[in-house]
Design goal:
By secondary structure, this protein is an alpha+beta fold. It has three helices and seven strands; from the N terminus they run E-E-H-H-E-H-E-E-E-E. It has a single domain, classed as Roll (Nuclear Transport Factor 2, Chain: A). It has a five-stranded mixed sheet with strand order 3-7-6-5-4, covered by helices on one side. Strands 1-2 form a two-stranded antiparallel sheet. The longest helix has 16 residues.
């Protein structure tokens, strides 16, 4: 089975980490609302976990990185993936391409229990039949939320660059 280059871009995924035990109170929230301590480096560190989950080629390792109510907008699917089962189903096919992501540019913003990472990346895909590697240049947006003691992907969207890149 041959996979389209744009298939890589639907690739989602991402990353969970246990926040440091230290937490601080956030202005505008009640005294009972704790915000996890997180830095840009913590959010950047999620990418290594993301690639590690992809490298297993096991959808059951990727799917738990997403929040329970996550949305995955896959490039090659007309259907938003809005359940853990639908997200897992997407990765069953996608991971056969041995995807490897490399961040090129990144902008990070962190709030009390949400974080965003937006930018550009390259996704290398290996055709499982021919072993030919294709690098897809794309833009991405990850929105994370802090859920059950870990950062989870709440929204992931990736799309191929609309103009030729160098």
């Amino acid at each position: 089975m041959t996979y389209s280059v744009s298939f890589a871009l639907a690739a989602a995924a991402a990353l969970a980490f246990v926040a440091p035990a230290q937490a601080h109170k956030h202005k505008g929230h009640s005294h009972n609302s704790q915000c996890p301590a997180a830095t840009a480096a913590d959010i950047e560190g999620q990418f290594a976990r993301f690639n590690a989950a992809w490298a297993t080629k096991d959808p059951a390792k990727v799917t738990p990185l997403f929040a329970k109510d996550a949305v995955l907008l896959a490039t090659v699917s007309n259907t938003p993936r809005t359940t853990p089962e639908a997200i897992n189903d997407y990765f069953v096919g996608f991971l056969k391409n041995s995807p490897v992501g490399t961040i090129q540019t990144s902008t990070i913003a962190i709030d009390c229990k949400t974080a965003t990472r937006l930018g550009t990346w390259d996704v290398a895909l290996t055709n499982p039949e021919t072993k030919a590697v294709t690098v897809v240049k794309a833009r991405y947006s990850f929105i994370y939320k802090y859920e059950e003691g870990a950062w989870k992907i709440y929204h992931l969207h990736s799309s191929m660059m609309p103009e030729p890149t160098k």
